[in-house]
Specification:
The protein has about 525 residues and is an alpha+beta fold. It contains 18 helices and 17 strands.
Length: about 525
């Protein structure tokens, strides 16, 4: 039966390759206006490829898009949902198949959009967009299968190169590797460019694997899936990797420790490399916080005890310990995961909460354990703003509320303000570039109708008529934006509107003209 299925899949792949050759390049397609335009003042383009050109078709997603038309009354807001929610399925499922050494092991290679590589963080969040629609389903054509394929491929990647953030297509796909840049990066431990696209160590990349595992398990209850394939070994790799990164810069006798990861890149941007011969700025040992050389924006940290990633890692390490506890002979590992998560949470409270003269107790963005602190927030998830979205704390938490007020004010050096959009940005896209992703997280973390509606209005009015969520937008000029095809942000917007439908439904009946 499996052999017959593989033959069908192989034949379908040949047909798909023929059809794909006749489909437009979405990198170009997403920069052009396509009819029919929405009937609102912004006249937003229709941005979905023809059904035959979509990389995955889901009837439950299509039904959801149709159902939301009667809920979302504003024509421009609906068009933005119509384009953005299915964007990952429409454009980013680059390849699906099975492992060469196990015909039952599903694999999904999910690109981030306009970059032909699979990021651990992006792919986990891209799948999260469809979490409300996921149910237990053994079919290869189901959303559950897509989830299983992403988890399996992420597990493989983590076992092969746990410090890396983005990866090349699996060998089974027959897709050749992509070139990242002309000059090779200098990093340890080394990893081959046939496997990795980039090897920036980001704690949140490992946390993303825990997140997507938790999401799939809680949606389906499919414990048998986690008992098979490489999931347990990937968790063991994650624990070994992160515990090694609890180390400080100096040993007790003052000698310099050998660190498990270093990174250097030939660049004219400080955020693309690490100082001190690739080690980064000094970090105090014994804090209980896990180091992260880079942020989820792929920018280097100033202080490597990066609080948002530790929040995310602690939260999902604890939830995946419950999965591990239901796997035979893994109770000790499950307890270890739970206890490790608890120690990180204690360390966040001890070192990550600081006193601000204006806002009181707040969470720092980064600390070094010596007393230095970086007070800011960045648009990418995990961020301090996203802490309730991640499930680390309740939105009513007073320290979080204090932090949120600072983040959404001029006291956050990366809160971009202007007549077009007001949102958190970051050094990745540069000064003046607000990220709609941060606007979406702002909506997720409030129930205030005015705040939600004013933020939605900015998002709807800042797509330059293209009807897609861009990476960043000039806060004074909507025609100046970055990344025409950024599937994660698009899916997150769709997920946000589905959340509003259940949580604050009235805002979807409002006008955003």
């Amino acid at each position: 039966m499996r052999s017959s299925l593989l033959n069908v899949v192989a034949a379908a792949t040949v047909i798909l390759e023929t059809v794909t050759a006749q489909c437009p390049d979405y990198s170009e397609y997403s920069q052009q206006v396509h009819p029919p335009l929405s009937s609102g003042r912004y006249q937003l383009s229709y941005m979905r490829p023809d059904p035959v050109c979509r990389t995955f078709n889901s009837s439950v997603v299509e039904d959801t898009i149709k159902d939301m038309q009667s809920v979302i009354k504003d024509p421009d807001l609906y068009r933005l949902f119509q384009n953005s929610f299915p964007n990952t399925l429409d454009t980013a499922v680059k390849w699906r198949g099975y492992a060469a050494n196990n015909s039952d092991e599903e694999l999904t290679f999910l690109i981030t959009g306009d970059i032909n590589a699979m990021w651990l963080r992006d792919s986990a969040n891209q799948m999260q967009s469809y979490l409300p629609l996921v149910k237990a389903n053994s079919s290869h054509d189901s959303l559950a299968s897509l989830y299983r394929g992403v988890i399996n491929l992420q597990a493989r990647y983590i076992n092969e190169a746990p410090h890396c953030n983005s990866f090349q297509p699996p060998v089974e796909s027959g897709i050749g590797p992509s070139k990242n840049q002309d000059l090779p990066d200098n990093f340890t431990p080394p990893a081959p460019n046939t496997t990795i696209f980039e090897c920036k160590y980001e704690l949140d990349s490992l946390a993303a694997f825990l997140e997507i595992s938790t999401n799939y398990y809680e949606a389906t209850g499919d414990i048998d899936f986690f008992r098979n394939f490489q999931w347990v070994s990937a968790i063991e790799t994650i624990i070994e990797t992160t515990e090694a990164l609890l180390i400080g810069t100096y040993a007790n006798n003052g000698s310099v420790n050998t660190v498990p990861y270093t990174w250097r890149r030939t660049t004219d941007s400080a955020t693309e490399t690490l100082d001190n011969s690739g080690r980064g700025n000094p970090v105090q040992g014994g804090t209980g916080l896990v180091r992260s050389a880079f942020r989820p924006s792929d920018d280097s940290t100033i202080f490597q005890l990066f609080i948002p990633a530790n929040m995310m890692f602690s939260r999902y390490l604890d939830s995946t310990s419950e999965i591990m506890a239901n796997i035979s002979n893994q109770r000790n590992l499950a307890n270890h995961m739970h206890n490790f998560a608890g120690r990180i949470r204690e360390a966040i409270t001890k070192y990550g909460i600081v006193n601000n003269p204006t806002y009181g107790q707040i969470y720092a963005f980064e600390v070094d354990g010596y007393g230095s602190q970086n007070i800011m927030d960045d648009a990418n998830i995990p961020s301090l703003l996203s802490a309730p979205f991640l499930g680390y704390l309740n939105v009513t938490d007073q320290v979080y509320q204090n932090t949120r007020k600072l983040i959404l004010s001029k006291d956050n050096p990366y809160f971009m303000r202007g007549p077009v959009i007001n949102a958190v940005g970051g050094p990745h896209a540069g000064l003046g570039q607000a990220w709609p992703m941060a606007s979406i997280i702002r909506i997720f973390t409030t129930s205030d109708t005015h705040e939600i509606e004013s933020t939605l209005k900015e998002i709807v009015g800042s797509t330059a008529g293209l009807g897609l969520i861009h990476e960043s937008v000039d806060s004074f000029d909507a025609s100046k934006w970055t990344r025409q095809w950024f599937s994660w942000a698009n899916g997150l917007f769709g997920q946000c509107l589905l959340d509003l439908k259940d949580r604050v439904p009235g805002v979807l009946g409002a006008s955003y003209q």
